């Protein structure tokens, strides 16, 4: 397997890069699952935003009553937006971090804490757990990304 | 041209990576065009959200009446947000996929189907076409990204 | 320091890539700071969206009155979303651009103008400055990203 990959590029043979690819893949999949959770709430709560989505419920007023907001749908959408605001910077900064030559153990520590914190954040937000569980899990992921950004800027700095 | 690039990095000489760069560029440009479509609807429908944007329409109540929502503006904004939720994961996972050593023909199949599905999705959402055209085009792009993520995790897995 | 990095990958030794890493890091950090600005306005204006966030203010109706929107909070959220719509494409296209073999001086020109324009855009949006300051700073960053995308597609084109 490694031989086949070496033909195209050596980057994936680097252990830090492989760890990055694994965790970036996991948190991006986690973020994408929010689409399914939002769709699940839209369908079970019958709360839609596009008129064309309610046409199967009938015509006119009968369909229009399903064009409404629902607290569970809105909550799932907020989790998704929060993921965009936090996971996307992690994926961008994490790539540069993985290319900046960190120790494998240090890199794994960053990636594992970030992924764990974001998974906790999703549960804390969706259930919801009492604060400060959501706030703390958010702050942990945020701090990990800043720590990686510091290493990137220290290594690459060329203004 | 290839000689000049080889001086800086060989990555762009890899055919799978070139295909990735082409399709990632195309779908990111498509996503960015949503800003112009939203701006077009805001101006033609005179529906703004920032008070400073309506000052050219006069002072006081005359300007305030343009601080309102419009169905076409909101629809364009939803397309843009849906692009962020789907095109951004494609760009991140697609990069790792391109570096994981897929066959060029398999990679092109993934990239072409994704780009086609997202362009169809935009038309299905904006016109709008009756469902399930928007739902199906969304699901196709979503599945392609998952297929790439599976290949990335299978190749890189280092937890 | 360079010796240690060379062990893992040579990419970070490329000057254009180092410049990209620096500016991508800066604009991603700038984007992430919007979370803190939104949180600051939510706390000082006492305007929250999640019931669990207002529980420290008391029970029942006393806490419910803080579940409201506030103009400053909404403005900060719009800046954050605008950053997602513009900085994320810059980071994706900029990476491909950095790997497409541009001259260092040309690349620095693109990165510096983009970063400057987005920092100006944030101030123009938050203060807010009269239009067209926000519109112009947005358009400058947008144009820089298109210029980079053009170079990427010209270099990599493989459909």
UniProtKB/TrEMBL annotation, chains A, B, C:
Protein's name in the database: Microsomal glutathione S-transferase 1
Organism lineage string: Eukaryota, Metazoa, Chordata, Craniata, Vertebrata
Keywords: Acetylation, Endoplasmic reticulum, Membrane, Mitochondrion, Mitochondrion outer membrane, Transferase, Transmembrane, Transmembrane helix
E.C. designation(s): 2.5.1.18
Membrane topology: Multi-pass membrane protein
One GO CC annotation: endoplasmic reticulum membrane
Reaction equation(s) it catalyzes: RX + glutathione = an S-substituted glutathione + a halide anion + H(+)
Any matching Pfam family: MAPEG
Localisation: Endoplasmic reticulum membrane; Mitochondrion outer membrane
Top-level taxon: Eukaryota
Gene: Mgst1
GO molecular function term, any single one: glutathione transferase activity
Organism, scientific name: Buphagus erythrorhynchus (red-billed oxpecker)
Keyword Metal-binding: no
Subunit (UniProt): Homotrimer; The trimer binds only one molecule of glutathione.
Transmembrane segments: 20-41, 84-101
Function text: Conjugation of reduced glutathione to a wide number of exogenous and endogenous hydrophobic electrophiles.
């Amino acid at each position: 397997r490694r031989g086949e990959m070496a033909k195209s590029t050596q980057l994936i043979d680097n252990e830090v890069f492989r760890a990055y690819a694994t965790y970036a893949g996991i948190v991006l999949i986690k973020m994408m699952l929010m689409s399914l959770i939002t769709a699940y709430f839209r369908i079970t709560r019958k709360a839609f935003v596009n008129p064309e989505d309610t046409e199967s419920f009938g015509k006119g007023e009968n369909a229009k009553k399903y064009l409404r907001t629902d607290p569970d749908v809105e909550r799932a959408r907020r989790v998704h937006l929060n993921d965009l605001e936090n996971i996307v910077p992690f994926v961008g900064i994490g790539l540069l971090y993985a290319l900046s030559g960190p120790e494998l153990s240090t890199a794994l520590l960053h990636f594992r804490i970030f992924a764990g914190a974001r998974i906790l954040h999703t549960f804390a937000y969706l259930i919801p757990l009492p604060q400060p569980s959501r706030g703390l899990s958010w702050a942990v992921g945020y701090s990990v990304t800043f720590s990686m950004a510091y290493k990137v800027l220290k290594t690459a700095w060329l203004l």
